[in-house]
Structure formats: C-alpha cells, structure tokens
C-alpha cells in the first residue's frame, strides 16, 4: 500500500477549507469571497481570504461554483444511438459549438422513450445549463407527459431544454422541412424513370418517418404510380434492419421478376429509404442477392450522412445540415433570456433549412 508523504501532501491542490483555515475565517465566508456570492463580506475578511488563496495557489472548482449558483457549466446531449453517423454528426455540431463558448458537453444514449425519460431525470439532478434531446420523435409514447413535466420543472429553475427534430412538445425545436425534402427526392425518382419502388420507413409513430413517407406517397400518387402494399417495410431507421428487410423480401421472392414478385410479378426497380443508414444496409442486401444498386435498381436515402458519398455507388440523398442543427441547438440553449422571449412561445421552431437539397449521385441513374 502506497504511503503519502509530506511532499505529496504539499503538492495536493488547496481546498476551500485550506483557504478558510489560512485566513482564519469560516468556510462560508471563504466561499462567498471566492465563488462570487452576492452576499456582502467585510472588507477585512475579503482581503484575508484573497491573500490566503494567493498564498496557497487556490484554484476554484468552476463546476462547483456553477452548481452553487443553480446551473453547471455544461450541456447534456441525449441521442438514441451514438454509433449512428446521423447522431454522430449532430453531436459533433453540438460539441464544436459548445467548445467555442467554453462549455463542455456530456453525451448520453437513450434508445427508447422510457430510457430518454430516465436519462432526463438523471440529467436535471445535476442542473446542467441546458439539455439537448436529439430524438424523442415517438409522438404517442406514454412517457411524453412525464417528460414534459420534468423539463418544465427543470426550466423553472433556470435550465433550458431544446429538441432536435421534434416539435410536438412545448419546447424550442430545431427542425428541417422533412416533407419538402421527401417530395423533392420522390419527384427526382419519378422523373428519372422509376415506378416500382420498395420503401423503407421507420416506426409508424416516428414523426420524421411519418412525414417523409406521407410526402413520398403523395408524389407517387400524383404521378399515377400505385405502390404495392407489400413494398413498404419497416427498417426502423437502422442499417441492420434495413438490410434485414431487403433480405426478407428477397427470400420471399418479392424483388426479382417472378410469380411472387411485387408489382404483378415484375419486381422492383428502386429502393426509397427514408434515411441513409437504411439505404446503405439495403444496398448490401441487394448485392447479396445478385441485384446491383445503381444498375439493376436505383437507391435513395435521406440525411446525407458523411458516409453517403463514400459507399459504392455513392448514395443519392436529401442533404440535411447535421452540423448546423447541433450548432443551432447550442445557440438556443445559450441565448440570452430576452432574446429567447423575442421568439414568441417556447414551442417556436428553429428552422436551419426550409428547403432541403437533393444530392444526385451514382445510386440513381436515369432509366
């Protein structure tokens, strides 16, 4: 067992108690001087504390100071899957924007509404300066009311909550025009000569998935294209689930022309994935079944994650400014109170992109 000698002790950082002892004042008085309390301290005591702090080379704990004042100098960011490139890109934007302002970021993972509620409860107990939730799109989840109450109580103590891609709760939300982007990519698919799509969606109660799917259906309907009911599958916004959905269709004989194939036996000519990772998983599954993406079928995604340009063929997708979305959330957290009030209700939307661009790449050649 290691024994601490006097030299080790001398090198240990001075504590508030050390300063109070050196200045011959109470810890409360030393704290008021060094932690910026608004309560007045006699000038003589103030001088003694400052001299003791200088002598002992005391360095105040910024985190403890902020907690004592009601908020810690950090932001909590909750995502559903840190390994997903979408959430990684948003997280990068949050961390970068916060670091530029001297604010640290604590990232937590909450994959379900229940986990999200529990994570928020734990986060509010530490009194961070703000909480950013980059998920929470299950609009009918029973945890919504409890989450709203938890965050309202947190805001009443001076904290701030901001959502990314959720506008169903009474808090500021960074959003993009999901429906506009979905219509744009669907129109590109139709204009490029495709008429027999498989659509990979997320869960039915997932807001972004619902908005994108509705818009895609509308564009196909306007073009006189009837989507085979068996051609819509839940890829759960996951690469592995997108892969599994296409593999299951292939095993059932739905993709290639044949008696059991979609579209009256003609099979499919395209895969419309409502996010990029499902599209990437789908391309792998297509190849595994002898169907070449970008040649035999067209493939599109949504989000323009960093990997979308690196897969083969490069993925045609809807560009979302993921880094800017994270930055906008931080800006909303750190905005002055009077600036926030100028925006109207707490449920105002923070649009970083009103008309998402479609990035045309090799996965969707014209037929």
Automatic annotation (TrEMBL):
Alphabetized CDD domains for the sequence: HTH_LacI (cd01392), PBP1_LacI_sugar_binding-like (cd06267)
Domain (HTH lacI-type): residue spans on this chain: 14-69
Signal peptide (UniProt feature, chain positions): none
Gene Ontology molecular function: DNA binding
InterPro entries in the record: HTH_LacI, LacI/GalR-like_sensor, Lambda_DNA-bd_dom_sf, Peripla_BP_I
Keywords assigned: DNA-binding, Transcription, Transcription regulation
PANTHER family: LACI-RELATED TRANSCRIPTIONAL REPRESSOR (PTHR30146), LACTOSE OPERON REPRESSOR (PTHR30146:SF153)
Protein name according to UniProt: LacI family DNA-binding transcriptional regulator
Organism field: Bifidobacterium santillanense
